[in-house]
Amino acid sequence: MTVSASVSAAKGRILIAGATGFIGQFVAEASLEANRPTYILVRPNSGCPSKAEAIKALQQKGAIIVHGMINNQESMEKILKEHDIDIVIAAVGGGNILDQITLVNAIKAVGTVKRFLPSEFGHDVDRADPVEPGLSMYMEKRKVRRSIEESGVPYTYICCNSIASWPYYDNTHPSEDIPPLDRFQIYGDGSVKAYFVAGTDIGKFTIKAADDVRTLNKSVHFRPFCNCLDMNELASLWEKKIGRTLPRETVTEDHLLDLARENIIPQSIVASFTHDIFIKGCQINFSIDGPNDIEVGTLYPDETFRPMDECFDEFLLKMDKKPAGGDDNIAASNLMVQISAMCA
């Protein structure tokens, strides 16, 4: 596919909802690094200490804090008008997905926002087909998509696939944990490939695509060839890093489906997505040559993705800081993920 040169607008004002979340922080930091006027939407009287710390850090880098909630249309209309917002990016968590419909209505009513990027940052939800409970989340995202399209609000969908890390099947944010040091758990036969993208690259390319005329009303897919790996390849890469061979344990399709059926949130959602990725191949089982799809590498051929080899180097540095405790630390990490979700 041949794509014409970018004709982006001047650096417009960006409002980010969910900037203190896992993906939202990468997007907000990339916006600030690109010298974009960056506004961070913060809920009034947010009392979560970790969120307050993240907000302060972004503010120190130049972010402008505005208070409001995306499910309050009147408040959002006022914010969009008063701050002359050009681009709205939502990176809200699963419990707030449908609140974006109110935000879409506010954007439509104001009529001056040039682009809306809803909270996607994963698979193409119109193509992926996870089992429950992951399917319910995707159904909500599909509902938001249809609302955007029916409203006429200009949009871009960011389909960035998997975060660059070891894909633990029971961890919401696996990039926060070191890859295995005792044994590998391989899904199925370990031969189904997926695309892995560093969080910094998700942020960087999201901001580049936010007002690129070529991404208008399109899905932007992140498919770095250098990071198209299956579980066996990922395991071998990590073994080279740590200088030893680890035993491999098969996690069967039935086991993942059983975990999904337990309907324990968020672990069962992660298990359903893991099944869709590494058993059904949801990231690689379709082409992106349609009129409403574009690959980010085609848009920015001179930009590079951080390879998994480099990302794994960072985990090696973390190993020196990892306290003793093994399984206790994994349990503590999962607990922190759940606490963060409660604060979101």
Automatic annotation (TrEMBL):
InterPro entries assigned to the protein according to its UniProt record, in alphabetical order: NAD(P)-bd_dom_sf, NmrA-like, NmrA-type/Isoflavone_red_sf, PCBER-like
Instruction: Fetch the CDD domains from UniProt.
Output: PCBER_SDR_a
Q: Which domain of life is it from?
A: Eukaryota
This protein's UniProt keywords: NADP, Oxidoreductase
Protein's UniProt keywords contain Transcription regulation? no
Query: Does the keyword field hold Oxidoreductase?
Result: yes
- Give one Pfam hit by family name: NmrA
Residue ranges of domain NmrA-like in the record: 11-310
Q: Which GO terms describe its molecular function?
A: oxidoreductase activity
Name under which the protein is recorded: NmrA-like domain-containing protein
The species is Liquidambar formosana (Formosan gum)
Q: What is the lineage of its organism?
A: Eukaryota, Viridiplantae, Streptophyta, Embryophyta, Tracheophyta
